[in-house]
Amino acid sequence: MAKIVLDRLAEQFVAGEITETGSQHGNEWARVNPAHWRGVAQFLRDDPVTALNMFIDLTCVDRLGRTPRFDVVLHLYSVDKKHRVRLLAGLPEDDPSVDSVVGLWPGANWFEREAFDLYGVRFLDHPDLRRILMYPEFVGHPLRKDFPKEGRQPLLRRFPGSVDEEPAP
Amino acid sequence: MPFSVYTSKLAQAVNWARKFSLFEYPFVTACCGMEFMASWAPKYDIGRFGAEVPRFSPRQADLLIVVGTITERLGPVLRRIYDQMCEPKWVIAFGVCASTGGFYQNYSAMPGADQVIPVDVYIPGCPPRPEQMLDALLILQERIQKGEGHSQVVLRAERGYVAPDAVIRPDRGEKGGTGR
């Protein structure tokens, strides 16, 4: 497969900015230095050769035990060129933060809120970085691998502390 | 004629009227709703039992049907809807998610709607068949007639209203009844 996007990235960025690339079954991916996350994304959107003008998905992966721990994954597609690319950025455990891409693709807004809600990744310059799925009172980020599976934080219970102590009528 | 006998007859008549004119509030959150809708459709026709009128305001409903998964975030909402209903009121939990949380065993799903509201009849199944909805309605009707619904019991306890001895529903006929 012609690696149009990866070739273009190799022309434009040095190894410290794009740390690793790969291509499998026509799917290209590139690991980006988090400091250059927004710059690379903006280039891919505005460059006439890549023209990745459509935001597909943004999510996060918790690779507990690895350094850096988190991977933010961004999927892009070009409506005109019919090609796509996957960008990854590894973020450290103590301060998982990366630039927001909402300014480039407004559709990324809720996806970044979701990644913030469930993984605790902070997106810098996000216009409205609030929880989107869990309630504001919730403590922690439940899709982290070290979050307890049944770490319920009930808002309301008829009988706090019990499953159901109601005698049958 | 003693006064108590007169009260008894009235309660039986009122409960008889209640059980055949249930106004439902369908609280549908998930896929169980597809099977639940079928119970209204002509093939199963819940209207045969007098419960075919959905009210999309809890203030006009007296039967809350919880259909689908209740999340922790939804708990206070469900409780508020239940509190808005006029008494006496009844609740059916449709499907395992509404009954016990079902296969959800995680941080976000509530283990059953009865964590926040009292439930009168539970329907198992993932999703249940529409026939089970009709069966649950018949069970509930028996309990309404006997004055055993949760809010009926609470009403009696809180307001000192002494319920008369209820009439046991006559056996359902030559097929041997339901054994309930």
Secondary structure layout plus pairing:
The complex is a heterodimer of chains A (169) and B (180).
Chain A: H1 4-12, E1 18-24, E2 27-32, H2 37-46, E3 54-62, E4 70-77, E5 84-91, E6 97-99, H3 108-119, E7 122-124
Parallel strand pairs in A: 2-5, 6-7
Antiparallel strand pairs in A: 1-2, 3-4, 4-5
Chain B: H1 3-19, E1 23-28, H2 32-38, E2 53-54, E3 63-67, H3 75-84, E4 90-94, H4 96-100, E5 121-123, H5 130-146, H6 150-159
Parallel strand pairs in B: 1-2, 1-3, 3-4, 4-5
Q: How would you summarize this macromolecular structure in one to three sentences?
A:
Chain A is an alpha/beta fold and 169 residues long. Helix content of chain A is 18%, strand content 26%.
Helical segment tally of chain B? 6
Cα gyration radius of chain A (Å)? 20 Å
Low-confidence stretches of chain B: 163-180
What is the topology, as strand order, of the major beta sheet of chain B?
2-1-3-4-5
Number of strands of chain B: 5
Helix content of chain A: 10-25%
| Gross CATH architecture of chain A | 2-Layer Sandwich
Largest interface: A-B, 20 and 21 residues
* Secondary-structure element string of chain A: HEEHEEEEHE
User: What percent of residues of chain A are in strands?
Assistant: 25-35%
What's the overall geometry of chain A? elongated
CATH class of chain A: Alpha Beta
| Uncertain runs of chain A | 164-169
Q: Can you give the helix content of chain B as a percent range?
A: 25-40%
According to DSSP, the number of beta strands of chain A is 7
Return the string of H and E elements of chain B.
HEHEEHEHEHH
Major β-sheet annotation of chain A: 5 strands, mixed
Shape of chain B: globular
The largest β sheet of chain B comes out as: 5 strands, parallel
By CATH, the topology of chain A is Beta Polymerase, domain 2
